[in-house]
Design brief:
alpha+beta; two-stranded antiparallel sheet
């Protein structure tokens, strides 16, 4: 029986409390894939991926709020992708996220998430933590899928080279053969990688 391929690495002591959050994120991702059998939350948009992370916050005993109005530098009003407030902390965390399918674009898209997070201007929490998060859903053409585990390990190795505060990944066994739709029906999407970086 195939096993899930999962991992969590935290390189910044300020984010050690994310260990439980990410453990829940892994569990919810796997639960969705197991339950739906032929679907995965990471295949969809940035919003879908943020939704799973928000759910993980609630499961951790935290609070979270998605897509709410927020001040941003350079314009009067914008939106913040996700706000989380850890139960064991005294300040909230504001997250701006991006989602890509091309793992070779990891560094520029993580940088974009960090830049967007830096623009946030929290109303009452001047000391609030701002974090850029990138979700990567890499695809493999079916003709290269005979060595799927090797491909997954290569995705992990490639993403792990990017400097960041958090690196986590989930390749659920139940979604190992997940295919795209329409013109992407020959592409397999076996999992998701998450990179996060604190602003500043």
């Amino acid at each position: 029986m195939e096993e899930d391929v999962q991992g969590i690495m935290i390189f910044n002591e300020k984010l050690l409390h994310w260990k439980n959050l990410l453990t829940q994120w892994l569990a919810l991702t796997t639960y969705y894939c197991d339950f739906m059998e032929d679907d995965a939350p990471y295949y969809y948009t940035e919003r879908a991926n943020i939704g799973v992370l928000a759910g993980a916050a609630w499961k951790s005993g935290w609070i979270s709020l998605e897509e709410f109005g927020a001040r941003k530098r350079g314009k009067r009003q914008g939106r913040c992708d996700l706000y989380i407030y850890p139960s064991n902390r005294e300040i909230g965390e504001y997250i701006e996220a991006k989602h890509i399918y091309n793992i070779s674009q990891t560094k520029p898209w993580l940088d974009k998430a960090i830049i967007d997070a830096a623009k946030l201007r929290p109303y009452k929490e001047e000391s609030a933590v701002k974090i850029g998060v990138l979700f990567i859903t890499p695809g493999i053409h079916e003709k290269f899928s005979s060595n799927l585990i090797d491909q997954i390990n290569q995705f992990i190795k490639t993403a792990a080279k990017i400097s960041c505060d958090i690196f986590a990944y989930s390749f659920p066994a139940s979604a190992r053969e997940l295919r795209g739709g329409g013109q992407y029906k020959n592409i397999i999407y076996p999992g998701v990688l998450l990179l996060a970086q604190v602003v500043g």
